Amino acid sequence: MKISYYPGCTLKTKAKNLESSALACLDALGVEYEELPRWNCCGAVYSLSDDDLIHLIAPVRDLIRVQEQGFDTVLTLCSMCYNTLARANELMKNDEVKRGTINDFMDEEPDYKGEIKVVHFLDFIRDEIGWDKLKASVKNSLNGMKLAPYYGCTLLRPGDVSIDKSNSPVVFEECMEALGAEIVKFPKAIECCGSYQVLGNPEAALKVSNDIITDATAHGAEAMALTCPLCDYNLGHRQEEMLKSMKVPKRCRCFILRS
Amino acid sequence: MAVALGVDPIHYYLDLNQAVSQEFLKGKNLLEKVTA
Fold first, then answer.
1. Which H, E and C letters describe A3-56, residue by residue?
2. What is the pLDDT of residues A50-80, one digit of tens each?
3. Which residues from B are below 8 Å from A254, CB to CB?
4. Higher pLDDT among residues A16 and A101, named by residue
């Protein structure tokens, strides 16, 4: 099995640890991957403006690059990249008028019709590796670690790009369970961490993240597992601020796909 | 996951939580296993 791999900007800068650990895990699981030789930023966020088609040029170009690379599926690690690429792909697949406008604008590129399948690390492991093989590959069981998987928004919403059931996902829990963790479920596991509000309204983002960690620890979590570098920043790196200014009872370790 | 799969562990702790993570994993007897 060989798959195209799209890294995205953050994994090459602030979240190198996520990339290096995830790729090492793929090596350990016998997955061959080939990084996209020419890639650009995915656009970071999917535009909520219905007619903001120029925002889709970046992710569509990336998907065209995957086609040129000779693959029909592309693997992402960052949840934001997954969401942006998958939503752009859905639009190109289903909206004939906008697809035509975008393809006409990029007249130097081959026309694209949404043929590439965009997958995230978690659904790729579930669908292509399977929990049994993952479990069999474990060398150091997480036996005894009370781990709270946190999804955030972009793996689950909107529903047409969700990697699992939007309101009751289990894929992250099953993955961590296969590694030997004791799963802690908590209601705020699918709520937003504050995302880019950390730039414009950092106090509001801090409050939201504080509520999530407080919820996880109240349900018995010793640590949280994350998939998104931005969630890692809000929930992990800002805990010192929470401990000083908020009511978070204690530090909760955050492991980004490397529990 | 990298810890559980036993792949090149030290490199993956290099983040802001490094010290806390190492201390935590040490408490779980995982750090010794993967660095052995």
1. EEEECCCHHHCCCHHHHHHHHHHHHHCCCEEEECCCCCCCCCCCCCCCCCHHHH
2. 889 999 999 999 999 999 999 999 999 999 9
3. 17
4. A101
**Residue B16: predicted pLDDT:** 39
Give pTM, 2 decimals. Answer: 0.90
Q: Which two tokens stand for residue A92?
A: 């190109």
- Distance from chain centroid for Cα A203: 24
Alpha helices in chain A (DSSP H): 16-28, 57-69, 79-94, 96-105, 121-124, 131-136, 171-178, 197-200, 202-218, 229-231, 239-245
A152 SS3 class: coil
A139/B2 touch (CB, cutoff 8 Å), yes or no: no
Give the residue among A226, A132, A118 at the shortest CA–CA distance from A162.
A118
- Report the C-alpha gap between A212 and A229 in whole angstroms: 16
Distance between CA A8 and CA A63 in Å, rounded? Answer: 13
Q: What is the mean pLDDT of residues A209-226?
A: 92
Place of tokens 């802690």: A184
Start-to-end CA span in chain B (Å): 17
Whether the CB of A22 is below 8 Å from some CB of chain B: the reply is yes
Which of A17, A29, A140 is the best substitution to test chain B (most B C-beta atoms within 10 A)? Answer: A140
Q: Count Cα neighbours of A13 within 13 Å in the Cβ-side half-sphere.
A: 5
Q: Can you give the pLDDT at residue B23?
A: 67
The residues that bridge with A5 in the sheet, in sequence order, are A35, A75
Q: Enter the tokens of residue A33.
A: 């991957």
CA-based nearest distance A29→chain B, Å:
9
Residue of A nearest to B27 (CA): A145
